[in-house]
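INFO batch 0412 | record 1 of 1 | parsing
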Amino acid sequence: MNNWFHSWRAAVRIARRDAWRFKGRSFLVLAMIALPILGVSAADLTLRSAELSAEEKVTRTLGAADARISDPGYGGAPLYQNPEGDQSTPVGEFDGKPYPEGATDVSKAFPANATVLPDSVGYGKVRTAYGLLHAQIRELKADDPMAEGLVNLLDGRFPKKADEVAVTGHFLEASGLRVGSTLTARGLDREYRIVGTYEMPNGLKDDEVIAVPGAFLAPLDKALKAEGLSGTTTTTTHLLRVPGGFTWNMVKEANTKGVTVTSRAVLLDPPAQSDVPLYTEEGWAPYEESGAANAAALAAAGTVVGLAMLEICLLAGPAFAVGARRSRRQLGLVGANGGDRHHIRAIVLAGGLVIGAAAAVTGTVLGIVLTFALQPVLEETIGRRFGSFDVRPLELLGIGLLAVLTGLLAAIVPAVTASRQTVLASLTGRRGVRRSSRVLPLIGLGAVALGAAIALYGSVFSDQFLLVAAGSALAELGAVAMTPALVGLFGRVGRWLPLSPRLALRDAVRNRGRTAPAVAAVLAAVAGTVAVATYTVSRDAQERAGYEAQLPHGAVSVLVREGGGRDVPAVRDAVQKNLPVDLRADLDRIVVGRAGCDVYSSAEGCGTYEVVIPKANECPLWAATPDGSDPAEKLSKEERRKLGRDWRCQNTETMAFSESGLVVADAKLLAVLGVKDPGAAKALAEGKVVAFSRPMVDKSRNISIRLITDQQAADEAAMAGKERPGRVKSFPAYQVAEGTKGYGVAGIMSPAAAKAAGLATQPLGALFTTGTMPSGEQRQKLDDDLAKTGVGVELYVEEGFVSENSIVLLSLTVFATLITIGAAGIATGLAQADAEADLKTLAAVGAPPRVRRTLSGFQCGVVAVMGVLLGSAAGVLPAIGLRLTERRQEMKWYQEALDQGMTFSPPPHVPIIVPWETLAALLVAVPLGAALLAALVTRSRGALARRAAT
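INFO prediction complete | emitting tokens
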């Protein structure tokens, strides 16, 4: 044991001195191992620091309070809730009965000895230095001790008077205001002074304003309603402090009074699942992660880590071999002085141990420093504060041991190779005759065959992507094992090559021990790149074929669904001013009830409308039944398939612009939509409704609209399977030619027709055609002008299908290029160390100096070409397997949809596209670049020395 310790101590000292002597090579290997360690350790620190403890989560939700009581809107009906208080359902069955709705008096759930702090939240538009900003308005006594932890003061103080507010730091930055500035809300004739800034730990990017209770939301709501607009909806919860805490039994008691409770005591010490009534209800059982899914995720993570370690070992292994080759005289002296093979192996392995340990320390320390330095940036990026800087030594130690293990694994093959050399060969510099293993290629061939069979089965007979991935990974490992034999096959083409490439190829074949790992490293990197590139390009082609344009190419739509239409004219003008507009078509919508009602608003006095579908045009698959049952269940599979092709059951976009897809516009809209039917413009001028949806038009060629003033009564009638009450108006209709696209517009009514029918309208937005596609600068100016309006604007520019994967393909190509050049460069360095004697011989017999440079370039290029060729072949196969599996899966879903009568579309298009541009770059540009780079960095003349005897 003592001898073992001393021999390893000596080996480590020798390895440390060698690493310090050859700093460039050591730094290269250290960087290869340390960079992944840096990334993993930084990710571990970030995730652990961002993960809040139970106490921190509770503080950010409740502050210093014991509970938060909320009204879920069940009208005071008893309910069940989960321990977190974010899920609830009324008690009982409601089939055929109205679902409980409405507000309740939450104060009846307050314990008698509780201290209460109201917390009200609403939204409004506030004026800034740049225009209007949509912000959350909160009324809370923020300096109350119970609110500590909910909001953190940054500067100034919290408001104390009715004309004071505090704002978040993000609001201050976005608004251009400062502490001391005056703040006003749109629609409210009242000024507030900003007295402080604060932040919410869970919402660093939120724009919020805090006022004292009753000072902002109620006056704003009253002012908006006075203008005929929808008021601001206010949600009020109550923070409670209760002596002894708010227990689970108290929570259940409060549930009987129709309120939900988020309790500190319950969150910190949750009850057993059996004691939660909600979990006994059907469909409310708590979510449990699948053990099989976890195992699959762990297997996938293990595979990724294993392949990453393999890639590092394949890249670093030749570097250790270079060191062993250049230190062979030193190793020979060790043998001459009594050292045996295990001492030689120990010295080379110690090199891996030293560099692996250095990489572990370097990567871990840099990961800690980088994460700590970037913590503010990371917090701003994710939008919330970390809990604490959580360093877990055992996890970081495990990550560091992974680096040490990687270094040792990378040094194993060079250590075994170095230990097999005789002392005489090491001292004289002779390389001897080294035969490659005959067993390893056979094992690799078996792995390739087995992996291909597994991938084939997964892609043809199974729906499991994991089988294809596992088979592909096994086949790739087999190809790596076969690399020495495949390198030998490449040597047969050397007879037709000129001197320098022939020497380079034969040298690579003769020394497969150093060539094979580099080729395998390139193979692995290129295979992954080609596989992902093939899959990505194929997926792009599929998405391009399935892309559905929302508008004609180059057209622009802008919609404003809030504010009662008062901001629409300004928005229309902003678009026309900033974009190269050729034609503008204004859109209005039909309004039922108060003029200031927003789209889909259910506020008091607001109604809606619907297009009445004639009974004869209703799809039998979707028709309402008196008992609420699904009519499709009563039809056979053949009947459902037939109805799936019926025009009545076609899925049409009818909700893209307004209720039922009906808009009020003139003939300009037909031009913007590209409608070529000459009868459409004539019909619109005659007061007819131009219909794009066939089911809307009855047999008399009319369209009927039901005006619904009582939405609650209409919903109750619909739930009972009855016709919704409302006044019906009919209009003559014109059906456009079949195949004419409406791009989400179901029908167009002229403003004159709407006025003649006594229908109230409201501005909704506009559609535009453009002469040229808007530029980035024009879009930025438009966004700036729209932001000043302070309203929610839905802006869309139809650019056609735009691939988002071009940057992915470029990144993959760059990655594969770096790996290829790095691996080929390492192999070239090893080849130069081996071939120094041959180069001296060439110089002695009169070879020109450029031979040294060209030989180096060709040695690098040979490795790159072999690796890229093998990797390209190995990478295409798994991508094809995955696409075949996807094709089978999508065809299965398509057939199931046909059986249900849910689709009339053509069969799915799942193409397999080979990325020829990426392959061309890898097969031609990368090897050529590697060869030229190696030639450029190699000196033409070596040091003069006598050729060693062999």
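INFO post-check: Residues 553 and 798 are 5 Å apart (CA to CA).
INFO record closed
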